Amino acid sequence: MLLPVGDTPNPRGTPWLNYLLIGVNVAVFLLVSLPMMMSRPDLSDPLLLEYLRALGARGAIPVDAVLEHVSAYDLAVFRYGYRPADPSLLTLFTSLFLHGGWLHLAGNMLFLGIFGDNVEHRLGRLNYLLAYLGAGIVATLFFSLFVPGSNIPLVGASGAISGVLGCYFIWFPRNRVKVFVFLFPILMNTFLVPARMVLGFYLVVDNLIPFLLTQGGGSGVAHGAHIGGFFGGLGLAWALERAPGLLERRRSQAAFRGQAGEGGNGEEPSLGGRITRLLGLGELPRAAALYESLPERAERLQVGDEAVLAIGEYLVSAGGYDRALAVFRRFIAERPRSPMLDRAFLGAGKALIHKPRCIPSAYQYFLAALDVAKSQELAEEARMHLRAIERLGEDG
């Protein structure tokens, strides 16, 4: 058995929204689900007949058989769980807070507790709540695509939590997960495993392979919902990673057009040579605006590595952290074999430490800078930032 029990590093502060989601799920189970599991159904409830028919019951059914095998909670799940054959907006949400039993609840809350705090810290509380609910809806709808006529209700927070895992996969690739390995009596110990290995195992081995083997249905576990939620989280994180860069590029294009208009010469901007000349003249704001206005990758690659990094480092020093981050991220994506890649990772980390809720992401970039460092000075600077972040975590 492999069981995740924690992760590192964790953000500073208290993940109140994550705790609230865990609390609501546990409270619904203790105060609503559990008492109803121990209660008999109302035999006069018209939903009971529909429920029995959905399960394939035919003809007259003895009352004793009904009372022995059906609880009040079974009817509640049938009413408030999401049934693809009878979809509703209400059950899209209510199904996310119902669970089939203790183990179902405990497994979901364990994963939410481990991975949710980092994602909440990155998104902020309101955005995290919207992302959680949105991922749950995407997961449920994805699942229903493969069983559109099913009357078996889907319940559980696992689709929404899978969305959280997808975000974590994108944003915290260098985090490590504490995994308890229980192979009695051979091995019983805890190991630190790269987060992407753990989440990749969850996606492929725990869900994708069973999903393909059961052709999208026919299993007691909603693998399709887990897959849909995970890819929904991946898509959200991927889009948010690039959104600041797109916005900053539009702003810088407008800024450059304004500067050109003030100059009155109407010249079209040249590429690497003009940017390098502006840097040499100390015209750092204009050089940055010109570089950011280049819309095509091929044009940006005509600008030398040193010039691009100088622009990014200037933007950090000037407080343009979003703009600097966009410059460094493009450098990393477009120049993966550059001998100056370590400076780009370091610069991205330095930009992120000034942004709210981005300390865990900054930690990832400093680790990357340390991995590819070409000089002892840069490696030591990366270590300094890593130690500072670790001290923040200890103080928090």
From TrEMBL:
The keyword Zinc-finger does not apply. Residues 89-240 form the Peptidase S54 rhomboid domain. Keywords: Hydrolase, Membrane, TPR repeat, Transmembrane, Transmembrane helix. It is found in: Membrane. The chain crosses the membrane at residues 16-38, 89-114, 126-146, 152-172, 179-203, 223-240. It comes from the Bacteria. Its main location: membrane. TPR repeats lie at residues 305-338. It is a multi-pass membrane protein. InterPro entries: Peptidase_S54_rhomboid_dom, Rhomboid-like_sf, Rhomboid_protease_S54, TPR-like_helical_dom_sf, TPR_rpt. Belongs to the peptidase S54 family. This is Peptidase S54 rhomboid domain-containing protein. It comes from Desulfuromonas versatilis. The lineage of its organism: Bacteria, Pseudomonadati, Thermodesulfobacteriota, Desulfuromonadia, Desulfuromonadales.
